[in-house]
Amino acid sequence: MQLDNYIMTTIADRLAIAHSRIAQAAQKCDRQPSSIRLLAVSKTKPIEDIIAAYQAGQRCFGENYVQEGAEKITALKGDYPDIEWHFIGPLQSNKTSIVAQHFDWMHTVSRDKIAQRLNDQRPNELAPLNICIQINISAEDTKSGIDTDQMLPLAKLIAQLPNLTLRGLMAIPTATADTELQLKEFSTLHNLFQTLKLHYPSIDTLSMGMSNDLDAAISSGSTMVRIGSAIFGERNYPV
Fold it and tell me: What is the DSSP letter of 146?
């Protein structure tokens, strides 16, 4: 059953379907569903929707827009301090301080300068910022992320920064219904993930897969899938 085609009336219902889909995909490849985390992508959605998902048991939320995400975190941290906030969008260097000061995770690091600024601007009273390196696994000019041969040098820098913790890799693969191509790109990313794990014991997160390629991602070893509109409905993008 495709998440995007399943119409339910509440966010709680949609979350339940998402978890069911993850469990089914995991069982097909002899994995434990508990080894895969669901990141609910709440960009452009109101705070009320996040609270509804929280009340249904969701704790991890992903935001793509710096200012919007920071405003939501500020509004909710008092009553919902156990929400884990992930920044999953592109980040300009002049906005790194906002991510460093508000978020728990940053998924899209692809430049030394961004990593260094995030480290330098992370408040001392906060735990180190969890970092995923973004790989341009499809080698598309229009996508962010580093080439595969740049992974280890960037990882080495991040691992040396005291206010960051290197956790893994993230990628946005080719938007395609071609399962063979999905599996090829995911397999490449999984191999890079395994290589990174050999060098750094903190590596435990492979952030790949969305509602349209969930099965291929999970069969290829994803530990975190990102689902948005199938939980919250279609997005209203900023003008």
Answer: B
